[in-house]
């Protein structure tokens, strides 16, 4: 929850999360590059280290993108995966950074050093990124070459896969650039969420980039199996979680002409927890606190998280995604925060919970 | 409250085991992909970079591009007196005027030498004209015809294919190959025979001129070429009109 904008609202768990993330990616990159050297030594041949680094960073970004996109549906299928979801934005930013390094490498621009009459210093693990390595040092500027060198737009086999990579990277850049809550608050959650749904356009472009690029040059069937397995696993997870939501949304309990709807027994809800019901096309989170019940919109104002999968903490419904809190009685966040969700009139009759499907407007603070 | 996680509160004990399990799975996945992945990539071409060398020989502009004819000690057969080293400049370019101004002379050049099978390519910036050693044979500029053949393969740039890049061929290398060939690096037709052996032919047209600017749209894709194979010492050239190049049926 935020009432002032800071770069990152660090918590101990965010630091641990990021440390693990960076550690895993460093492990992958080191393993990929070192193994490439071992294989080359075994075969008694020289390694082209720039190409190896380009492949290492590109594949790291691609693998991490799959993990990032799997967290959403996994969280919808089982709440324990919320432990991965709360800091998913940092994962997405890391995907963009790895992709950017795949494209631009680690080299410093030479021009300022030339002006100073000095030699360009070499960074540790310096390498030319894919744009410079394949398009620079010739008779055209690298970016001009990138966009003009392959014009086989009419052929699937020869299609310029580089352009699909550019589309994917642009999408990742936009998402990384507006990932901060500053943008979420100013663009509003629906607009921000809609922009972030473009990750699937980016993902499709990057799958095309790999299928029409790396897999055209690397005919190893296992590489194709890995790429297709990743895409299939993501598709399956999204279809499963989507089908589950669709199935539960079908059970709309509201009936025409009835001002109060019986949504179940009090004892069906664990104390401190909630159940989600569908009323007139709106998901409602019904929370139980002892012998009291409260009905709030299920949609968290932060990122449309499932409030009904949260718990009651300090008399507030807490969203499981990022911990946004809403008072049970009013649906308003406790001061100094100003987010709020609509509530619904609720009654308890002989152990049955009755809810009016007409919401009470969210309290504005 | 069991197993409810919010990032600003302590991790519930029941979730710790799950997080450790997920972490174990992720580390295993990363390790497996990190160590297995490199073996799946086509990044181990046979080309090799030799230490910076000085070579002396006849400097010619053709067939197919600039080349240095280096006498082969003890080699006096009629059809292979010299070892032909194709020349390129720094980057994806032809050698600079400091080299090309001496075409037809006996010169000394210095640079990185890349070799892949019989294909040798040197990056060089400067050629120093010298008096040829006594008894040096003249260069054979006509070559020996090996006959007409139909060949299937791919156009690559001789420089990257000889070892600057791995693999230096295929679609992912198309951009680089086009830049090199557009910059004047000799275009080579790489053919893999049925027995797995590879042959590389420098491309020339039916007037013995370079074809670089006319084949840019055909680089790094399967092609079928029919033409006359001509041997120039250790270098094979394929003489055919670029308009006759076509995709294999």
- Low-pLDDT runs of 5+ residues of chain B are none
In spatial order, strands of the major sheet of chain A run: 2-3-4-8
Beta content of chain A = 5-15%
- Main sheet: strands, sense, barrel of chain B: 5 strands, mixed, barrel
Q: What composes the largest sheet of chain A?
A: 4 strands, antiparallel
The value of Rg of chain B in angstroms is: 25 Å
Shape of chain A: elongated
Q: What is the helix fraction of residues of chain B, given as a range? A: 10-25%
The count of DSSP E runs of length 2 or more, i.e. the number of strands of chain A, is 10
**C-alpha Rg of chain A (nearest Å):** 26 Å
Beta fraction of chain B: 35-45%
Q: Greatest contact pair?
A: A-B, 71 and 57 residues
Number of helices of chain B: 4
Classification by helices and strands of chain A = alpha+beta
**Overall geometric form of chain B:** elongated
State the end-to-end CA separation of chain A: 15 Å
Give the tally of β-strands of chain B.
10
Task: Please render the helix and strand layout as text.
The complex is a heterodimer of chains A (365) and B (249).
Chain A: H1 12-43, H2 49-77, H3 82-85, H4 88-104, H5 111-115, H6 130-135, H7 142-148, H8 161-177, H9 181-187, H10 189-196, H11 199-217, H12 221-250, E1 261-265, E2 274-279, E3 282-289, E4 292-297, E5 311-313, E6 316-318, E7 325-327, E8 343-344, E9 346-349, E10 352-355
Antiparallel strand pairs in A: 1-10, 2-3, 3-4, 4-8, 5-6, 6-7, 9-10
Helix pairs in contact in A: 1-2, 2-4, 2-12, 4-8, 8-11, 9-10, 11-12
Chain B: H1 13-40, E1 48-61, E2 66-71, E3 82-88, H2 97-100, E4 106-116, E5 119-130, E6 144-157, H3 158-164, H4 174-182, E7 187-192, E8 198-204, E9 223-232, E10 235-239
Parallel strand pairs in B: 3-5, 8-10
Antiparallel strand pairs in B: 1-2, 1-4, 2-3, 4-5, 6-7, 6-9, 7-8, 9-10
């Amino acid at each position: 929850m935020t009432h002032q904008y800071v770069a990152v609202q660090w918590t101990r768990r965010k630091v641990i999360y990021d440390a693990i993330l960076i550690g895993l990616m460093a492990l992958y990159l080191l393993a990929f590059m070192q193994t490439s050297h071992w294989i080359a030594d075994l075969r008694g041949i020289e390694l082209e280290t720039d190409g190896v680094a380009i492949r290492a960073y590109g594949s790291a970004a691609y693998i991490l993108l799959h993990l990032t996109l799997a967290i959403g549906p996994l969280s919808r299928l089982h709440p324990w995966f919320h432990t991965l979801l709360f800091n998913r934005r940092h994962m997405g930013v890391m995907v963009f950074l790895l992709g950017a390094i795949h494209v631009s490498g680690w080299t410093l621009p030479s021009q300022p050093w030339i002006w100073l009459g000095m030699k360009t210093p070499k960074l540790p693990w310096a390498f030319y990124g894919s744009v410079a390595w394949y398009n620079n040092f010739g008779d055209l500027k690298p970016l001009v070459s990138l966009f003009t060198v392959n014009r086989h737009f009419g052929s699937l086999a020869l299609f310029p896969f580089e352009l699909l990579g550019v589309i994917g990277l642009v999408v990742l850049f936009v998402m990384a650039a507006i990932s901060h809550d500053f943008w979420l608050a100013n663009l509003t959650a629906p607009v921000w969420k809609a922009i972030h749904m473009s990750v699937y356009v980016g993902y499709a472009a990057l799958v095309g980039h790999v299928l029409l690029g790396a897999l055209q040059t690397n005919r190893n069937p296992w590489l194709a199996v890995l790429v297709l397995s990743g895409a299939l696993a993501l598709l399956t997870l999204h279809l499963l979680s989507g089908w589950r939501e669709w199935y539960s949304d079908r059970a709309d309990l509201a009936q025409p002409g009835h001002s109060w709807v019986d949504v179940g027994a009090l004892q069906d809800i664990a104390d401190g927890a909630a159940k989600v019901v569908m009323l007139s096309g709106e998901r409602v989170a019904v929370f139980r606190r002892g012998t009291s019940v409260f009905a709030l919109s299920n949609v968290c104002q932060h990122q449309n998280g499932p409030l009904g999968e949260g718990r009651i903490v300090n008399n507030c419904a807490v969203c499981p995604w990022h911990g946004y809190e809403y008072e049970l009685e009013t649906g308003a966040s406790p001061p100094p925060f100003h987010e709020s969700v609509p509530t619904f009139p609720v009654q308890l009759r002989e152990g049955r919970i009755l809810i009016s499907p007409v919401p009470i407007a969210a309290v504005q603070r | 409250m069991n197993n409810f996680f919010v990032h600003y509160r302590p991790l519930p004990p029941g979730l710790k085991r799950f997080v450790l399990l997920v972490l174990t799975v992720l580390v295993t996945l990363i390790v497996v992909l990190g160590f297995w992945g490199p073996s799946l990539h086509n990044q181990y071409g046979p080309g090799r970079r030799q230490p910076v060398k000085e070579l002396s020989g006849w400097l010619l502009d053709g067939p197919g591009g600039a080349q240095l004819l280096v006498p082969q000690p003890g080699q006096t057969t009629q059809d292979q007196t010299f070892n032909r080293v194709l020349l390129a400049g720094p980057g994806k370019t032809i050698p600079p005027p400091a080299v090309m101004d001496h075409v037809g002379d006996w010169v000394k050049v210095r640079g990185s030498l890349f070799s892949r099978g019989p294909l040798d390519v040197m990056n060089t910036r400067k050629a120093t004209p010298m008096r040829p050693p006594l008894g040096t044979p003249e260069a054979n500029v006509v070559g020996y015809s090996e006959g007409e053949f139909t060949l299937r393969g791919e156009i690559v740039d001789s420089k990257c294919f000889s070892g600057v890049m791995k693999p230096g061929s295929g679609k992912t290398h198309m951009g680089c190959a086009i830049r090199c060939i557009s910059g004047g690096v000799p275009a080579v037709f790489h053919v893999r025979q049925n027995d797995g052996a590879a042959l590389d032919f420098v491309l020339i047209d039916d007037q013995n001129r370079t074809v670089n600017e006319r084949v840019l749209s055909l680089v790094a894709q399967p092609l079928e070429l029919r033409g006359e194979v001509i041997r120039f010492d250790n270098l094979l050239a394929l003489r055919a009109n670029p308009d006759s190049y076509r995709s294999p049926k």
